[in-house]
Amino acid sequence: MESAAWAPAQSPPEPAPEVLAAFEAAKGFMPLDEGLALYAAAADAARLGLPLLEIGTYCGRSTLLLADAARRAEGDVTVLTLDHHRGSEEQQPGWEYHDPGLVDPEVGLMDTLPFFRRTLHAAGLEEHVVALVGRSPRAASVWGGPLGLVFVDGGHTDEHATADYEGWVPHLAEGGLLVIHDVFPDPADGGQAPYRIRCRALASGAFTEERAVRSLRVLRRTGPGI
Ligand SMILES: C[S@@+](CC[C@H](N)C(=O)[O-])C[C@H]1O[C@@H](n2cnc3c(N)ncnc32)[C@H](O)[C@@H]1O
C-alpha cells in the first residue's frame, strides 16, 4: 500500500531564505516541495552527527539544502556529494533532460562540476561540503564510515540505482534516513528503478517509510540489513 502524504505535528525546519533563493535559481530538477522535504530530512538526520551523503550532485541545487542543514546542525556535520559530473543517460545530447550549456566544448562531454562549484560558492556553503568526483560504485568500494543520511538521486537505471543502494545503504546508521528521489509507483509517470529500491528497502524489514512528497520518499533505518 502506498503511504499517504505525511502531516507534520509541528512546522518542519526550513532553509535560510537566501539558501532557498539560491536553490530556486540553481539549475536542476527538484521542485520546491520536494526540496523542503529533503531539507527537513537532512535537518533530522544531521542530529546523528554523521556525514550526510548525496548521490547525484548535478549543479548543486539539492546540495545547497543539505549543506544548509549541516551548517545549522549542532556539531560538525559534513555533506558528501558524489557525481562523475558527466550526466545521466537522460541528460545526454538528444535526450529529454539535456542542457547544451553544460557541455565542456574542449572535451565534448557534459561537465557540471564548475556549475556546482559556483552554486555552492555563491551561497557561502563550500565549508560544509566535500565533493566526491567519480562513479558511485567505485567511491562506495573505498568508503568505510557510518552515514546519517543517504540521498539517492544518481543514475536512474536499475543497474545504477541498485549499485547505489547496495554500495551505500549498508553504511546508513540505525536511526538514519534513506531518501530516494523520482519514485514513481505508476510506470506511466516515470522510470521504475528508484521505486524498486524503495520497495526493496521496505521489504527488507530494515526501513520504515515516514514521508512521501511528490516523488520523494523518506525512509528511516529501524534495523540492520538492506
Ligand atoms: C538527476 S541528477 C541529480 C540532481 C540533483 N540531485 C539536484 O536535485 O539538483 C543525477 C546526477 O547523477 C549523476 N550520476 C549518474 N550516474 C552516476 C554514477 N554511477 N556515479 C556518479 N554519479 C552519477 C549524473 O552525472 C547527474 O549529475
Automatic annotation (TrEMBL):
| Alphabetical keyword list | Methyltransferase, Transferase
What molecular functions are annotated in GO for this chain? methyltransferase activity
Please give the biological process terms from Gene Ontology that the record holds: methylation
Q: Which residues form the signal peptide?
A: none
Per UniProt, the enzyme's principal EC class comes to: transferase
Q: What is its EC number?
A: 2.1.1.-
What the entry lists under InterPro entries is as follows:
SAM-dependent_MTases_sf
Record-given protein name: Class I SAM-dependent methyltransferase
